[in-house]
Recover the amino acids of this structure.
């Protein structure tokens, strides 16, 4: 959140569910394009036949992060005929905690005053000054919420403990910029799990590959396909049959990882992977090491591998490696394959 | 009593008894008449019994006596439970005769006079004849072929059977004539040219079948439409025409889709399916009429194309091979040639395999590099966009840098002003937006309420339909029973008017009711009087007792009191006697009334005249006896 960055917060929108059972997009500032509006309405739990109530969900669409907070209208209130409402904040950066806090303040303001104008004032204050009064004593400061904290907020230890040595498949897929699809029927579990996966490739610090909450609609899938590699989370069990969407499929409730046929060849693993897997498991099992330390360990190992690859490229022209050069080193086939694809992912391959 | 007599006389007349016109009550019946009536009745009731009895009394006394006895026996055999003997017929009295005749008349079997003289129009006669014939045919039971009698040949033989051959008929639509304007020509056609239904079919036997089929189809179509309309049509809230047209378009679309999907090329279909699709496409061609044959080829499936292609290749290869083979004669040469060919072909094959491998490897490499390049491109684009934005901001900042302090302040004030303006605008927009949203919500509520209302009304309509259906069924049933009862009524004899009887019966019933009321009133009056009498007697006794004591107490002292006491006692005694006399008078009056009634009834019995007759007859019998005895003594 440095001052040189251009505007990060894009818009705020208001969705209401009224006594007639209609869910309407009633207000937004400054504007939200119709496509994004559709997506937001779909993600908002108020349109989903009222089954589950999700207080906070976030997702990624068309390089925009959206954060939706839903609240039930409690008496006494200035809002008549409204049973529930959601506030959708869109922004360019990934920081669920920050926007969750902001949305909570906005929700409370809206419930109290019954008019979005007051809410907008708070939003504009945050936008221009980076600070806003919250009605609990204290204030909301943007600079309290650091992006590093957001990146590290998830629990990598849980991931490793759930999948054990198979976590290496996820690691490989992420390193090779492959497509990972995660399925879980509950959205909160999905968000929690997927948000930590990009931390396995800490050297890139690229969370734009993360699409934690996607529905099987054409618009969203088209947007997904514009990214060459991604981590996508679905609540729809039908996604397991869509083999055109993934190279690795993670069935989270059953804790099963499957590699699709087309990607098996590229994801072949060897001794190198075994080493890394062992390291991950050991590090995570150590009760004294925190999540961030585990991530650091994995990152260190990754850097070793990358350094090794970089060393290989030095001997080639243009510092770009070729397959022939790799073959000269007589690596075991799996390792050679992995290094070849890794070079492509890290853009070290000669074209 | 007169009514009863009239009914009896009428019934007796019907049986065949010759009752004179002036005789209209049983009092005037003579013995002969009685005997004749009874004999005829018995004959009708049970022909076996009555056959031996004469209808008139013979002159001889003993014969009459015998006849009387046998008649009494016959009546008892028929079932008469009362006391009956020869005296009932020879020395009759009214009440007994009346009860006997009533019993016999009731026993008479109900005769149904054939309704012969009804409105005898030709069609009515014809219909009755048809009904009679059908009844007879239906009454004849089905018999297996081996047991058929000539009676059954007409209706149950093989020749009478026809297979159900149906032909289309055309009717002028007489039911909807009021709805649709028929063209004059169509009307003329229907009137002048269209043959009657019986002539429209090719054979006589298929007329009935065709009419049945047409009728059944129309009926079922009407019922189906009714059901569909009631269940789905009403729900869709359209008029019937709109509903029909929508259904038509929907069905057309579906047919089109089905034909298209069946004719569309499918690359993974099996050979059999592709053959059928080519057939279907040919069929579609015939629909379209003129279409060049190569059009068919382009519509064929991918599979058929590859087949054709491979087939032509095979033919080419075969053509290539055959001249090679044809030119050689010697065997050894042939074998050598073949081996050489085999080796060359294997070499070719290996070359091809290695080519394929090379190509796959190249493809893989290219894929990977392609991915890398795309990735790089995307990243660079994004980086460019970000850098653009940053540059814009930096440029503006740099522009403002010279006068940093002021510009900063200006910017801040601008921002604040802008924020305030935006908030202001938002407030204004809110003023517009809130009422609109409220209006929308309100209208939605009204709409859903209306929906509920209309649903409720729809269900009401459905229940009404149900009720209508039930009542039409009931009405049909009731009409049928009404028709049946009317025909029954018409067939009953009309000469005796039932209405007069029913009228009299109802009058009698109301009279009896009135009398019953009066009797109850009188009874209650009597009870009241009796109660009063009891009350008064009691009071009298008590008063007398008290007075008696009082006066007696004083009577010892005073002489006048003693006298008054005596008077009192005498008074009481006399009054008692008076009361007693009155009561006796009443009892005696009642007895007189009873005796008078008894005298009346006894007088009705004609006992005196009967006795005289008996005496006479007795004398006659004694004479006959003596005559017979004398005859016996003589010869």
């Amino acid at each position: 959140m440095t001052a040189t960055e251009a505007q990060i917060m894009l818009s705020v929108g208001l969705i209401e569910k009224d006594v007639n059972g209609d869910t309407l997009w009633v207000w937004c500032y400054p504007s939200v394009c119709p496509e994004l509006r559709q997506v937001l309405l779909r993600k908002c739990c108020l349109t989903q036949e009222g089954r589950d109530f999700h207080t906070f969900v976030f997702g990624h669409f068309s390089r925009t992060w959206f954060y939706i907070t839903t609240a039930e209208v409690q008496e006494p209130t200035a809002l008549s005929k409204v049973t529930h409402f959601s506030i959708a904040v869109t922004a360019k950066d990934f920081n669920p905690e920050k926007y969750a806090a902001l949305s909570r303040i906005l929700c409370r303001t809206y419930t109290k005053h019954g008019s979005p104008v007051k809410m907008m004032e708070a939003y504009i204050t945050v936008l221009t000054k980076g600070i806003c009064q919250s009605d609990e004593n204290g204030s909301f400061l943007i600079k309290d919420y650091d992006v590093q904290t957001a990146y590290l907020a998830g629990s990598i230890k849980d991931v490793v403990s759930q999948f054990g040595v198979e976590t290496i498949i996820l690691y490989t897929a992420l390193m090779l910029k492959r497509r990972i699809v995660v399925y879980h029927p509950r959205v909160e579990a999905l968000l929690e799990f997927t948000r930590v996966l990009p931390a396995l490739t800490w050297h890139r610090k690229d969370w734009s590959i993360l699409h934690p909450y996607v529905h099987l609609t054409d618009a969203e899938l088209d947007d997904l396909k514009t990214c060459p590699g991604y981590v996508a989370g679905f609540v729809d069990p039908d996604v397991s049959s869509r083999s055109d969407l993934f190279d690795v499929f993670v069935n989270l409730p059953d804790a099963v990882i499957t590699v699709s046929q087309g990607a098996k060849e590229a994801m072949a693993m060897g001794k190198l992977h075994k080493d890394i897997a062992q390291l991950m498991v050991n590090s995570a099992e150590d009760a004294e090491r925190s999540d961030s330390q585990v991530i650091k360990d994995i990152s260190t190992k990754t850097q070793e591998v990358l350094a090794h690859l970089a060393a290989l490229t030095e001997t080639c022209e243009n510092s770009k490696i070729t397959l022939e050069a790799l073959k000269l080193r007589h690596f075991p086939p799996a390792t050679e394959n992995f290094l070849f694809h890794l070079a492509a992912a890290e853009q070290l391959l000669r074209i | 009593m007169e009514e009863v007599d009239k009914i009896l006389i009428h019934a007796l007349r019907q049986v065949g008894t010759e009752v004179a016109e002036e005789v209209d009550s049983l009092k005037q019946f003579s013995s002969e008449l009685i005997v004749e009536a009874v004999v005829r009745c018995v004959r009708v009731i049970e022909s076996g019994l009555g056959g031996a009895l004469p209808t008139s009394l013979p002159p001889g006394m003993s014969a009459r006596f015998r006849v009387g006895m046998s008649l009494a026996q016959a009546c008892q055999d028929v079932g008469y439970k009362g006391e009956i003997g020869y005296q009932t017929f020879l020395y009759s009295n009214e009440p007994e005769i009346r009860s006997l005749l009533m019993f016999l008349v009731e026993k008479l079997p109900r005769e149904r006079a054939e309704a012969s003289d009804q409105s005898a129009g030709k069609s009515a006669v014809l219909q009755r004849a048809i009904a009679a014939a059908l009844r007879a045919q239906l009454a004849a039971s089905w018999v297996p072929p081996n047991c058929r009698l000539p009676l059954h040949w007409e209706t149950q033989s093989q020749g009478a059977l026809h297979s159900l051959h149906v032909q289309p008929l055309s009717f002028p639509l007489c039911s909807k004539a009021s709805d649709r304007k028929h063209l004059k020509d169509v009307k003329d056609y229907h009137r002048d040219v269209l043959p009657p239904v019986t002539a429209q079919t090719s054979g006589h036997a298929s007329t009935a079948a065709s009419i049945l089929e047409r009728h059944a189809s129309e009926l079922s179509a009407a019922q189906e439409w009714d059901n569909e309309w009631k269940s789905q049509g009403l729900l869709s809230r359209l008029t019937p025409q709109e509903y029909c047209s929508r259904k038509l378009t929907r069905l057309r679309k579906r047919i089109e889709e089905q034909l298209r999907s069946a004719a569309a090329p499918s690359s993974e279909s099996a050979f059999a399916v592709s053959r059928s699709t080519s057939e279907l496409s040919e069929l579609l061609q015939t629909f379209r009429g003129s279409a060049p044959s190569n059009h068919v080829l382009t519509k064929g499936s991918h599979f058929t194309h590859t087949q054709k292609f491979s087939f032509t290749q095979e033919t080419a290869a075969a053509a290539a091979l055959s001249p090679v083979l044809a030119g050689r004669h010697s065997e050894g040469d042939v074998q050598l040639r073949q081996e050489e060919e085999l080796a060359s072909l294997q070499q070719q094959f290996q070359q091809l395999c290695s080519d394929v491998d090379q190509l796959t490897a190249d493809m893989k490499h290219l894929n990977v590099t392609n991915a890398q390049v795309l990735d790089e491109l995307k990243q660079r684009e994004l980086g460019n966009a970000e850098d653009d934005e940053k540059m814009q901001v930096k440029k503006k900042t740099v522009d403002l840098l010279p006068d940093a302090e002021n510009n900063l302040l200006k910017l801040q004030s601008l921002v604040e002003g802008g924020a305030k303006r935006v908030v202001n605008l938002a407030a204004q927009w809110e003023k517009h937006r809130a009422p609109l949203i409220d209006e929308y919500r309100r209208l939605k509520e009204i709409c859903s309420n209306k929906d509920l209302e209309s649903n409720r009304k729809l269900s009401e309509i459905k229940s009404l339909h149900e009720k209508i259906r039930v009542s039409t069924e009931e009405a049909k049933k009731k009409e049928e029973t009404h028709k049946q009862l009317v025909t029954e009524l018409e067939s009953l004899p009309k000469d005796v008017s039932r209405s007069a009887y029913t009228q009299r019966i109802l009058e009698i019933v109301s009279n009896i009711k009135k009398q019953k009321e009066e009797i109850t009133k009188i009874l209650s009056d009597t009870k009241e009087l009796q109660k009063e009498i009891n009350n008064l007697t009691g009071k009298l006794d008590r008063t007398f007792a008290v007075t008696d004591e009082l006066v007696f107490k004083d009577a010892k002292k005073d002489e006048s009191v003693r006298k008054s006491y005596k008077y009192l006692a005498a008074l009481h005694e006399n009054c008692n006697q008076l009361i007693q006399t009155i009561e006796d008078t009443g009892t005696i009056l009642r007895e007189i009334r009873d005796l008078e009634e008894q005298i009346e009834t006894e007088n009705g019995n004609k006992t005196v005249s009967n006795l005289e007759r008996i005496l006479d007859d007795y004398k006659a019998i004694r004479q006959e006896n003596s005559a017979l005895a004398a005859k016996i003594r003589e010869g």
Notes: Residues 124 and 250 of chain B are 53 Å apart (CA to CA). Residues 2-152 of chain B form one domain. Chain B touches chain A at residues 365, 368-369, 371-376, 378, 389-390, 393-394, 415-416, 419, 422-423, 426-427, 430, 433-434, 437-438, 440-441, 444-445, 448 (CB under 8 Å). The radius of gyration of chain B is 61 Å.
